[in-house]
Backbone:
């Protein structure tokens, strides 16, 4: 029996107002990751999204909610009283009545996505609660496999995608970044298999730069934002993340481009430099160096001689 097909013009469009769960932050029925280094407030961001979706209050006091609904969450590393305290503090900051907040917490001691019984139990729970958003925090506590092995990670992500498609729920997975990946592109900094990055429809990344906490937003089907400054504000019973500036200024001193690094190294040299010497002076990979050198020579900005490369004589 053949699969059904339709002309693309006959496919039902999604009304613009229904594309977002939280506008600009999380798409309706999207799966994705809130990722970041340890102690970068990943759980606070996930809980802020939970309060926003359940109440309709803007997330981070800025991003409007387009669709409200029940939220189901599982916090594997936090005691239930910690979860309650954090949600209560966020609700106060958002001006929301905590007692009526439509957020439900799974209080089981353990959930393993690599266990057939646990997957069945989670599916039945989602079917009963009917959440608009499912929050699972963190991924490392939800399985016993190797996060670097695609063969072990892919089935877990496929299961979560099946929950999203079957029950029309958005799925938010909290996950850690790799150690020493502070300079890596946000998605590439996630720990484990690259499938984790590719799986997300909406991915939010938190990282610290000195004392600053920055949020980067990445979407599969919409433009993202980078380096939005956040701060955890309030006292012990009233902590919540706040967006400090929704329109950050562009860095006035961006890092030098590869051609600029090459020209700077040549300007400081007393004699022509070989590719090897240039690679060390400009601190560049050979492939990137050779590509930039070729363009510079083609455009007459660098002269190639038998003993190396130099800048044109003024």
Residues:
């Amino acid at each position: 029996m053949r699969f059904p097909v339709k002309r693309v013009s006959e496919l039902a469009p999604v009304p613009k107002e229904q594309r977002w769960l939280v506008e600009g932050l999380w798409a309706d029925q999207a799966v994705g990751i809130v990722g970041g280094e340890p102690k970068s407030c990943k759980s606070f961001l996930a809980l802020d999204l939970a309060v926003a979706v359940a109440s309709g209050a803007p997330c981070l006091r800025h991003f409007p909610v387009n669709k409200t609904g029940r939220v189901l969450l599982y916090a594997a590393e936090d005691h239930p009283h910690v979860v309650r305290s954090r949600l209560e503090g966020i609700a106060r900051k958002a001006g929301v009545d905590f007692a009526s907040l439509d957020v439900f917490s799974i209080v089981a001691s353990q959930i393993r996505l690599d266990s057939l019984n646990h997957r069945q139990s989670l599916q039945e729970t989602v079917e009963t609660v009917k959440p608009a958003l499912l929050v699972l925090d963190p991924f490392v506590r939800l399985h016993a496999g190797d996060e670097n092995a695609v063969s072990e990670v892919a089935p877990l992500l496929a299961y979560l995608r099946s929950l999203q498609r079957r029950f029309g729920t958005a799925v938010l997975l909290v996950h850690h970044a790799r150690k020493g990946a502070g300079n890596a592109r946000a998605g590439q900094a996630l720990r484990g298999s690259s499938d984790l990055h590719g799986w997300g429809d909406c991915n939010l990344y938190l990282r610290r730069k000195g004392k600053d906490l920055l949020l980067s937003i990445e979407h599969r089907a919409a433009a993202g934002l980078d380096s939005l400054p956040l701060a955890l504000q309030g006292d012990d019973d009233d902590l919540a993340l706040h967006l400090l500036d929704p329109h950050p200024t562009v860095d006035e001193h961006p890092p030098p481009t590869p051609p600029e690094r090459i020209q700077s190294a040549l300007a400081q040299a007393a004699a022509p430099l070989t590719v090897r010497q240039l690679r060390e002076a400009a601190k560049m990979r050979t492939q990137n160096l050779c590509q930039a050198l070729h363009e510079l020579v083609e455009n007459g900005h660098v002269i190639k001689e038998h003993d190396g490369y130099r800048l044109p004589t003024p």
Q: What stands out?
A: Helices lie at 42-55, 80-94, 116-129, 150-167, 195-199, 258-267, 275-282, 286-298. The mean pLDDT is 90. Residues 279 and 287 are 10 Å apart (CA to CA).
